[in-house]
Amino acid sequence: MNITQYLDQQGVNYQACSHRPTFTAQQMAAEEHVSGMYVAKPVIVQADNQYYMCVLPACCKVDLSQFAQQIGAEDVRLADEKEMAKLFPECELGAEPPFGNLFGLTTIMDDSLAADEYLLFQAGQHDRAIRLDMDVYKKLVTPRILNFSYHLH
Predict the structure, then answer these.
(1) CA–CA separation, 43 vs 109, rounded Å?
(2) How far apart are CA 105 and CA 81, in angstroms?
(3) Hey, how many other C-beta atoms are within 10 angstroms of the C-beta on 45?
(4) What secondary structure does DSSP assign to 38-81, as a single string?
(5) Which residues pair with 46 in a beta bridge?
(6) CA atoms of 151 and 18, how far apart (whole Å)
(7) What pLDDT digit, counting tens, does each position of 140-149 carry?
(8) Residue 99 contacts residue 93 (beta carbons within 8 Å)
(9) What is the pTM of this model?
(10) pLDDT (tens digit per residue) in 85-113
(11) What's the rounded Cα separation, in Å, for the pair 145 and 123?
C-alpha cells in the first residue's frame, strides 16, 4: 500500500505535491520552498540486529552514539542500500515516507521536529511530497520521541 492510499484509508487531510525529482531531503525543501526543519527525512538504523526508522529534519544527521545510548543498544550502524531496497520494496530508494509502522519498523522521531506544526516528506517517489499536520502524523505513527540528531552547518 502506498502512503497516499494509507492516508486516504485513515480519512485524514493532507496535501500532495509534485515537484522536480529530488534526491535529498534538503533538495526537496528547496524545491518546495520550506525550511529543512519542516522536511522529515527517514534514516534507517540497525541497532543490535533490529531496524529502526529515525525521523529527523532534512538539515540534520543522526548521532549514532547518542541514538545507541538512548535506546540502550551496543552495536549501531546505518542500513545500506541493499537493506533499504528489501525493507521498502514499493518505494524508490531514498524516497521512503517516514511511516515505520507501515513497514514493520519502530519509528523514532527527533525531538527537534516534534513541535513543528506540520511535516513535509517524500511520498515513496522522488517527485512527490506530502504535507501533513504534525498532530495527525503523531496520531498515525505514534513515534517515540528522542534527541539523537545534530544540525549540519
Answers:
(1) 10
(2) 17
(3) 22
(4) GBEEEEEEEETTEEEEEEEETTEEE-HHHHHHHHT-SSEEE--H
(5) 51, 77
(6) 27
(7) 999 999 999 9
(8) no
(9) 0.93
(10) 999 999 999 899 999 999 999 999 999 99
(11) 22
CATH number of the domain enclosing 18:
3.90.960.10
Where does the pLDDT of residue 153 fall: very low under 50, low under 70, confident under 90, or very high at 90 and above?
low
Q: Which residues pair with 40 in a beta bridge?
A: 57
Which residues, in sequence order, are CB contacts of 33 under 8 Å at separation 6+? none
pLDDT in tens, 23-65: 888 888 888 888 888 899 999 999 999 999 999 999 899 999 9
Euclidean distance between CA atoms 93 and 124, whole angstroms: 8
> Which domain covers residue 45, as residue numbers?
3-151
Q: Which of 19, 74, 12 is nearest to 48 (CA)?
A: 74
**What are the cell numbers at 20?**
522536480
Flag whether pLDDT at 132 surpasses 80.
yes
Q: What DSSP line would sit under 82-102, residue for residue?
A: HHHHHH-TTS-TT---S-GGG
Residue 131 carries which DSSP code? Answer: E
The pLDDT value given to residue 152: 76
Q: Please name the residue that has the C-alpha cell 533499504.
A: 84
